[in-house]
Design a protein that fits this description.
Length: 126
């Protein structure tokens, strides 16, 4: 039995060039892009069952302007890398999972006193 030798030509080694970091976009464009993308994909904020119940119990309704403000606040939090954020809006505090695009709970002004919000990494004041 004879063994054949196979010759593989040596390939030059190429340096690995890191991909450009897309997070270094011009200031102001990322937030607008996120908003447009959310609108086009239909990824508007969702409200958890718990948040819906809290809002109903306290007779809190959102106008389209309020929802737009809330979406902008969540977009800002997302642009900064937040995962769970407290959004303070008018006389209302909303705990939002930015990662899941979901309002987890809502607390009105009367119930806000002496509350402690844990497991958040950011706060957005609208």
């Amino acid at each position: 039995m004879t063994t054949k030798q196979v010759y593989f030509p040596q390939q030059p080694v190429q340096p690995v060039v890191p991909a450009k970091d897309s997070s270094k976009q011009a200031v102001g464009t990322k937030g607008k892009f996120d908003q447009v993308l959310a609108q086009k994909l239909g990824t508007e904020l969702k409200f958890s069952q718990h948040a819906q119940q809290r809002l109903a119990d306290r007779n809190i309704e959102f106008s389209q302007d309020d929802l737009d403000k809330l979406n902008q606040a969540v977009s800002k939090a997302r642009a900064k890398g937040s995962r769970d954020s407290l959004v303070l809006m008018d006389n209302l505090a909303l705990l939002v999972s930015v990662k899941n695009n979901t309002v987890i709970t809502a607390v009105d002004g009367q119930s806000l006193k002496e509350n402690v919000f844990t497991n958040i990494d950011s706060a957005v004041i609208v």
